[in-house]
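Hey, quick one: can you model this chain's 3D structure?
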Amino acid sequence: MTAIGGEHMLYAAERQQRILDEARRHGRVEVNAVATELDVTPETVRRDLTHLEGRGLLRRVHGGAIPVERLGDEPSLATRSTRLTAEKKRIAARALDEIEEGATVLLDAGSTTGAIAELLPSDRELTVVTNSVQTGALLAAHDKLTLFVVGGRVRNRTGATVGEWAGRALRDITVDVAFIGTNGVTPEHGLTTPDQAEGTIKRAMVGCARRVVAVADASKFGVDHFHGFADLAQLDRIITDDSLDRTVAAAVEALGPEVTRA
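Sure thing. Here's the predicted structure for all 262 residues.
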């Protein structure tokens, strides 16, 4: 394993970020090797791995851990909604600043965009379009919102409508701002997702918006999935949480979008 140390007395968050980065680079980490490299006890590493597993970033295995994206198993919306909830709420709160009075807003299906829907004030007059069954049900009670739910086949895993019906509806509209979720963000491949059908709909959402704002917690950065749906140059802004490394944020900004760490 390549060295991930080089400094002693790291804060827990710094140590855990190094462990996560190493796991993503090499596909796994070993407890004893990490303990040696970081000059900490194996018990400390095990606690770090337990913390990272609790955040949904790693899966513990015998003697170490592997990053969840290597498992090839897309987590359900219910599972994702329990991960990094504080970070997603901060991202969602910042996203509200992008919405002007009377705007037409598109909300992608996902846990972070769902957090935006939960924070939308009920006294604002907005037009909201979504392909999320859950978001549609939530916003249906808002009297001042004009709500459009995009039809199509519903993916049970995410509650997103996909397919030709959904694509046709999105081709016929233009919105002021679209909030797009993603499973992965890299400078090389932009925004990516495991599912082709959702990738197709996300691409259509990017295409129908005057402004495109991606919302993604820091765990999504440096991760690639099978289907790409947007280059970074197509985005106006990415809103993430404040744990994202500033050098990573700068590398993303160099390709077009402003990066806001909430």
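One thing worth noting: The chain has a mean pLDDT of 89.
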